[in-house]
Amino acid sequence: MKTKAAVAFKAGEPLRIMEVELAPPQAGEVLIELKATGVCHTDAFTLSGDDPEGAFPAILGHEGAGVVIEVGEGVSSVAVGDHVIPLYTPECRECKFCLHPKTNLCQSIRETQGQGVMPDGTSRFSIDGEPILHYMGCSTFANHTVLPEIAVAKIRKDAPFDKVCYIGCGVTTGVGAVAFDAKVEPGSNVVVFGLGGIGLNVIQGAKLVGANKIIGVDLNDSKKTLATEFGMTDFINPKDVDDVVAKIIELTDGGADYSFECIGNVNTMRQALECCHKGWGESWIIGVAGAGQEISTRPFQLVTGRSWKGTAFGGARGRTDVPKIVDWYMEGKIKIDELITHTMPLENINEAFDLMHEGKSIRSVVLY
Ligand code: NAD
Ligand code: AHE
Ligand code: ZN
């Protein structure tokens, strides 16, 4: 079939909207008609050329929601008409990782996913017979996409696609980092570096679990209003203080119980670790840093009881947890609408990247 897609031909170049060919789903795969997709900073990161796994030409996008319109041979967990959210972290429920209680990082198709192809090593997308790569196993910047059935979460039919697409990455990553991975206890002091599409979800997660102080750090003062509405108790703009770490230690009487880095900058990752309380403070890296970047600190920071950890997709096991997070939204336990600051048709998707780089949006959502 033919479908409309935003194709990334080269790092650093705007996406080009065009018709592409999409081959039918093979055994174990499903064809999805996407109804909406968010634009995450990770899409911009890969498009910038900083992603060591970035390969072109590709169809980016990994924060979608849509409807199953065809299933390949042997598909049993979803059917035509089901509403689904694509999963860049699949859940096969069989691999060593899925069977281990401490991780959500299903590895059953990770290798081919990282190469931009389906598990059989080929791409379903092409233009004039030339293959176009998939991205993060999702490629939601296309009106239709093909995914392995282990990489889709079936969700309730009354959930609005234009909001719950954000659960495909940002909401789950932020709320899940707090609730599933860090397991922040009520009364904890929490610091969030970066108040964008991820950081604001960390804030709402921290509020949900009953954190005490929730300190937000961002270079952009305009993020303060929404962050406060979501539960931030204190705001620090690094431009206004001599030493961010010292300021946090002062505000928290010794340091944060938990910090979350939601920027992707190795300098703020160091600050996020070093603002943690001696003896027990945990710093969780969410931000994705470019090729060649490395983190550093004095080992004494760890010797004296701070720990440095990382989280992907909020520790969520997609097929199990994503439908539950959709329920949380539908029941009013978490907010999404307020974070979707812009919507646009696929034709205008490059504006979503401009708004992000200008610091004017939290989430832009493309509506098909
Ligand atoms: P975003 O662009 O919406 O937000 C980033 C925020 O950081 C902005 O508010 C910006 O003003 C602020 N910022 C930038 N540099 C800063 C600095 N030096 N000091 C303080 N604030 C600064 O991005 P996002 O969509 O929220 O994504 C954030 C990061 O999380 C990205 O690196 C993204 O790739 C990563 N991410 C990781 C996962 C995961 O599973 N680990 C999932 C989604 C996104
Ligand atoms: N390809 C990059 C790493 C990118 C990365 O860390 N991705 C996160 C999700 S970001 C979503 O917006 C992730 O899930 N990581 C675990 C994984 O297996 O990719 C690189 O540095 O090579
Ligand atoms: Zn993302």
Automatic annotation (TrEMBL):
Keyword DNA repair: no
Domain Enoyl reductase (ER) positions: 12-366
Record keyword Metal-binding present: yes
Family matches, as SMART domains: PKS_ER
EC number annotated for this UniProt entry: 1.1.1.284
Catalytic activity entry: S-(hydroxymethyl)glutathione + NADP(+) = S-formylglutathione + NADPH + H(+); S-(hydroxymethyl)glutathione + NAD(+) = S-formylglutathione + NADH + H(+); S-nitrosoglutathione + NADH + H(+) = S-(hydroxysulfenamide)glutathione + NAD(+); a secondary alcohol + NAD(+) = a ketone + NADH + H(+)
GO process terms (BP): formaldehyde catabolic process
GO CC, alphabetical: cytosol
First-tier enzyme category under EC: oxidoreductase
Gene Ontology molecular function: any one: zinc ion binding
InterPro entries tied to this protein: ADH-like_C (IPR013149), ADH-like_N (IPR013154), ADH_3 (IPR014183), ADH_Zn_CS (IPR002328), ER (IPR020843), GroES-like_sf (IPR011032), NAD(P)-bd_dom_sf (IPR036291)
Cofactor needs: Zn(2+)
Keywords, ordered alphabetically: Metal-binding, NAD, Oxidoreductase, Zinc
Biological function: Has high formaldehyde dehydrogenase activity in the presence of glutathione and catalyzes the oxidation of normal alcohols in a reaction that is not GSH-dependent. In addition, hemithiolacetals other than those formed from GSH, including omega-thiol fatty acids, also are substrates. Also acts as a S-nitroso-glutathione reductase by catalyzing the NADH-dependent reduction of S-nitrosoglutathione.
Membership in a protein family: Belongs to the zinc-containing alcohol dehydrogenase family. Class-III subfamily.
Protein name: S-(hydroxymethyl)glutathione dehydrogenase
Protein source organism: Thalassotalea agarivorans (Thalassomonas agarivorans)
